[in-house]
Amino acid sequence: MIKNTMAAAVAAILISGASIAAFSAAKIQPNVLSETEKNVTAESVSASASSTSTAASTTTATAEPTTEPTTLRTYHIKFLDFDGNLITTLAVEEGDPINYDAVDIKSLHKHIDVNTEQAFSSWDIKPDFADADYTVHALSKTAVITLKSAPTKFRYFSTKGNVSLKGLDVAIKLSVQTPQKDKNGNYITEESTINISESCTAKPSALSEAFNKSDKATISVYPIGDQKALCSFDIVCYRDLGDVNEDGSINSADASKVLNIYANMAASQNMTVSDKTMKLADVNMDGQLDSHDASLILKYYAEASINPDFVDWENVIDFDSLNIK
């Protein structure tokens, strides 16, 4: 029994020593694995990698989006004239800009009558891009030319210079529609008045052209750049008035001749004066040749000699007060 006990003790010591040796070897070389362990480990890693790859593939396949073709909506933009009539309709894809230049607005420009002209001003709304169906109305601007008074100067005494438009009063009343509407749904207009008298022209404009064939002429008045006359009026030329002796000058010699003719007419009831002489000598246009005409010729001569701004007979005689036609 003792023998058996001793044998068991020795075996236990041998087992303990082997365990210690194995532990010590593992501690000194921790990365050294047996072939079996290597194979097991490699298989585990391979299995893990395969599992990860499969999971990744599954994840990637799940995350890939499905693309489908999209169709943009088409909107219709209607354009109406001043009276609400359709001009044109543009089909525009959603998000695209609206091309207003594609709308022909030339037909909106018209002459309502001789003195009234209407044209396009703007659109009541002007969206930049197509994001809905729109109805766009044209807004107008209307110009009305009003003649308040025609030129008042109709009497001339030479063919030098130009036709005068003195006394002309012409204005343009401009009415422009705005996008705002009143309580009745009508577009509110803004009005302004511009006087254009100074920009009007006379045809013919030169007195030499107007009196080329006669001492009377008809003059037409036009707004600048327009071919339609606003009005017309008659003018008359008293050329060479006061130059009784027809020497090209008006001076004391003419006054002296008038006095001589007047004296001879007073002395002889049978003396006659030619129409031309009467036209040149009757400077106050009262139908008589007398000393008053001679006096006015002398006054004309004196004014012309001392006054650098002297123009013609209107500097001497107020013909308007004489109511001469």
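The above is record 1. Record 2 follows with the same two-line structure.
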Amino acid sequence: MSKIKSIGVLCSGGDSPGMNCAIRAVVRSAINAGLDVYGIQRGFSGLLEGNIKKLDVSSVGNIIQHGGTILQTSRCLEFHEADIRKEAAHILKRKKIDALVVIGGNGSFNGTYALHSEHGIPVAGIPGTIDNDISGTDYSIGFDTAVQTAIDAVDKIRDTASSHERTFIVEVMGRKSAAIALHVGVCTGAENVVLPSDTLNIEEIAKDVKRGISRGKNSSIIIVAEGEKEGLSHRIREELKNDHGIDSHVCILGHIQRGGNPSGIDRFIASGMGYIAVKDLIKGEKAIVTAYRHGEVVTVPFSECLEKKTDYLPQYINLVKTLSI
């Protein structure tokens, strides 16, 4: 058993629905075990500023149903520098914080693991990103809620598309990850899904739209993952119009996918991850990530979760193509 007496918790990178559930679980699990818990505001930036406060059970009351994060979050590019990480380690030691729980994505995990490797601070990562693109885990907090938010929006757009006999290009989040686009495409019956790794094939998109028209469909939905460069959806609209005579409208869902009340799935998994992160740190683990594998929450070595998961199972892509005919 370890001798840690206190734990710090922070969120880093983009927010995702369910982060509050994980914070709540970390705080209450630690207090239940007799530990002090400190909330660090605004991620690693807040840590460097000393923006740290002690939390109690009431601090996390009535937050499980809310999106975002009560601790707020930020992206701290300075944390790439070894001297900055050294200062962060000194701050944790001065504040008598023995271990750190970080809720975030792959970039945050790399900074956290470097902090542990260089200064020996016990750390636990909880995967929180709507892109579901962290290696080593089947699931990251916020993905289910983001997908359902996008599905609800596309269902409403489909009503308008049908009423006006229009084609809509709906852009969802996913600069490098295909996860949201694939799931939304299948669940909304989209005629075509454009993924970040795809070479844009306007001919195929136009063929899919015209195939639907030929069998009596009066509307079409094209789901587009945003990709790393802005403007992809507008480019598709222009080429469909100029090269194939197909009028379409662009709807960019944007950051509404990050917000909203977390789904039951996100609340449950996030709560389990917060609990097991604290439990294993108390057991003496030094560098772990809570992972969702084969339907259960486990902990795995930090080193397994430092890469982005960019490949998606081919059968998902084939599923979209098969069902969209």
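The chain has a mean pLDDT of 94.
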